[in-house]
């Protein structure tokens, strides 16, 4: 998987990719709030349209975005079933005599819930994972959380640990693959035999992997010390993040969208969530 | 008769992703049996990728890899067809036969690894056992050999690669880089593969370490008559040890032939950005200066005797 950045980051040139990662974190939070502001059909239609707009603005293939929903299909199905069968309302859809009672409100609830989860996943995906590299994301979090340093929370150190961990995930994945191949070339068999045998078969992979991970850690630590790294105190950055006007405009747009949704709740038609 | 034949082989990494990369592009190549073939090319030209196709670790995106005329990537269905009529499978129920055939495919894949021994680039990281002896024995053990046979093979492999017997009881993690490399090499040689494939076996070693490795490989090849493929960046080592040479660039085979043929195409080589051996360059310079030494000299030994001959016959001064 060389070259494939860890996670779902999708390299492309798009307006969304260019926005400052801090702005994107703020926008993601605002957008999550938005999804919870919706109470009626008008709102949800607006929400759905906004999600489509986000996908267009980020140049991510729709297929890829929809694929990211696959892991949560089960949750979506589960919540809809619960909502359909458990919601008590006024408009009974099934005949009186039936044991199972389905109300129109239940159907609406389920529909809204599915829409909400779908848009939530797509929205946060577009803002955070698809258009922002994990490293940029940690950077942004460090900036945004830096006020917490005042109350002695080591934000920088957490961010550095996070960055290092993220940086090494692809390296270690690649290394695991290499070691597995090398042992396979010596006839190692990881797939057949009893559970115990298979667990034992992992030793030839795990030992070299740990050895090399520790070596890497020591090397990295020495390299950092040689460059006089001593934590976040007084440290400046190579790539300083700069807000541009467009970042503020983008944040304001999402906030305005939230306010709009709030007022749309008054002009709803059909069913309204309580 | 080729030992290995690549038939219009292409290989694409990450097909269908934005990171798609064609590492091999329609390569057709035959490797002569019982020869030492050197593979040379710049970093990223697809040498390692090609090496990993040879023992079935990876299968080509397109094309076939033939070992003794047998397609090493025959798909399970083909194996199924071949196995169906055999007595052990005929009497099995459908699901049992399927399972047995899956096991058969796995068995064939492992057997292939034993026949085509692959030493990957920087193989030191594959060491994991408590002692050098046990580590070298890992391959033969997986082959299911007897204790005595394993011991004999380990000692033999240690001898080929110049590992002294007092090292055998040490932990592989306490060895020097060059020693580790030799242990990793021995771990593959101990399987006595008919084809030995080495991906830059001398990379990052000092000159003595390099010589040790190359001598060991050459010794193994001569003793067992096996076919050896060796990736190297050193024209000097190629000239010294290899019979044939393959020059790769951009995922394609640019030249293939015996060392003399390849080294004679100086301009083609330099257009790819590769050099002829330094000693050959030196000989060319001497010729320019008026010394009548032959052109086709690729090793220091040959150069020494040519210059000696020149001086003894005493033709002209410099
Ligand atoms: N695991 C991988 N994933 C994606 N691309 C790869 C991978 N391994 C190699 N490549 C790419 O394939 C090409 C050939 O690589 P490789 O076979 O390692 O070349 P060489 O061994 O000649 O240096 C290179 O461009 C490299 O970037
Ligand atoms: Mg390589």
Question: So, the CATH homologous superfamily of the largest domain in chain B?
Answer: P-loop containing nucleotide triphosphate hydrolases
Our count of helices of chain B gives: 13
The proportion of residues in beta strands of chain A is: under 5%
Indicate the CATH topology of the largest domain in chain B: Rossmann fold
Average pLDDT of chain A? 87
Find the structural class of chain A using helix and strand composition. Answer: mainly alpha
Uncertain runs of chain B: none
- Which kinds of small molecule does this entry bind, naming each only once? adenosine-5'-diphosphate, magnesium ion
Spans where pLDDT lies below 50 across 5 or more residues of chain A: 1-6
Number of strands of chain B: 10
Cα gyration radius of chain A (Å): 25 Å
How far from one another are the termini of chain A? Answer: 48 Å
Using the CA coordinates, give the radius of gyration of chain B. 23 Å
Quaternary assembly = heterodimer
Give a brief description.
By secondary structure, chain A is mainly α. Chain A has helices spanning 15-18, 21-37, 41-58, 62-67, 73-86, 104-130, 134-145, 155-185, 195-201, 203-226, 245-264.
